[in-house]
Amino acid sequence: MDRRHATDDGEEEPAADSTEETGLDSNLRRRLLTSTASVGALATAGCLGILGDGSETGPRPGEPTPYDGTETPDGTTTPGTVEAFDVEFLKEETTLSIGSDTAVLDAALDADLDIPYQCQIGVCGQCTSKITNDGDPTELVEHDGNQYLSDAQIEAGYMLTCVGYPRSDFSLETGVKDEADSYSPGGETETPPETTTTPGEIETHSIEYVEQGGTIDVASDEALLDAGLDEDWDMPYQCQVGVCGQCTSKVDGDGSELVEHDGNQYLSDEQIQEGYVLTCVGYPRDDFSLTTGKKDEADQI
């Protein structure tokens, strides 16, 4: 249809094309009208409650069911299930049900059993015990962090309760470190060779324990920690074998000149030169002042 309108001089001219009026061609206008109709339909559906109130849970049609991790897609359970096993403590005349994720020592201490231990990190061997059951001991206990027992000792039934986790029921005899230390794969215990001490003069040195508020004479063959504990002083420590660093202290000078370490596996040479020492394996070689509780400070170097 040819739309026209009159001009000022009375002549008619064609009406402006719709593209000129709106700035849109007909195809674009058609797509916009279609999308507007779709939006209107959604609004109408919302008003009628067809779309729901948003409280529904679960996947929408066509989406996969979410996996919550408790079962594998084929219906089997995921690995890592915690089991409980009966562990009989023969000397203590007690049987405990211990989870497979709990160290035997931790369970014993929770039950207030008095069993030997010290470092609690698998290093010192003080918690060494022996499994008395027949069979392969490696199938009864799994170690996580053993740094003391050999494979032969473990195969013979020796275990560390501090880093040993049950994998079956078994009976246990605690306090057998000396027996394990003298064990030989042949099945007989070895008699340690006699050792003779080399002649040497034992000296004593005056050590001021600053935090404890006392000064005592400590022999050159006595660890600084042992001397302090003999005085019933409260001093930080844990492993007592130079590994954990909990007993780190500081002397007023070069630690390498004032203290001799026997078994240090924690401090670096630089830290020792800065005056940091381990009291559990540190022996005095001169007089000095000692400040305990310096582990965090030493760790910054």
TrEMBL record:
Composition bias, Acidic residues: 9-23
Sequence ranges of Low complexity compositional bias: 65-78, 185-200
Alphabetized PANTHER family for the sequence: FERREDOXIN, FERREDOXIN-2, CHLOROPLASTIC
Residue numbers spanned by region Disordered: 1-29, 51-78, 177-200
SUPFAM superfamilies (alphabetical): 2Fe-2S ferredoxin-like
Membrane-spanning residues: none
Record Gene3D superfamilies: 3.10.20.30
Entry cofactors: [2Fe-2S] cluster
GO molecular function, one term: 2 iron, 2 sulfur cluster binding
Family annotation (Pfam families): Fer2
Entries under PROSITE patterns matching the protein: 2FE2S_FER_1, 2FE2S_FER_2
Name of this protein: 2Fe-2S iron-sulfur cluster-binding protein
Domain 2Fe-2S ferredoxin-type: 85-178, 205-296
Family stated for the protein in its record: Belongs to the 2Fe2S plant-type ferredoxin family.
Organismal lineage: Archaea, Methanobacteriati, Methanobacteriota, Stenosarchaea group, Halobacteria
Keywords carried by this UniProt record: 2Fe-2S, Electron transport, Iron, Iron-sulfur, Metal-binding, Transport
InterPro entries in the record: 2Fe-2S_ferredoxin-like_sf, 2Fe-2S_ferredoxin-type, 2Fe2S_fd_BS, Beta-grasp_dom_sf
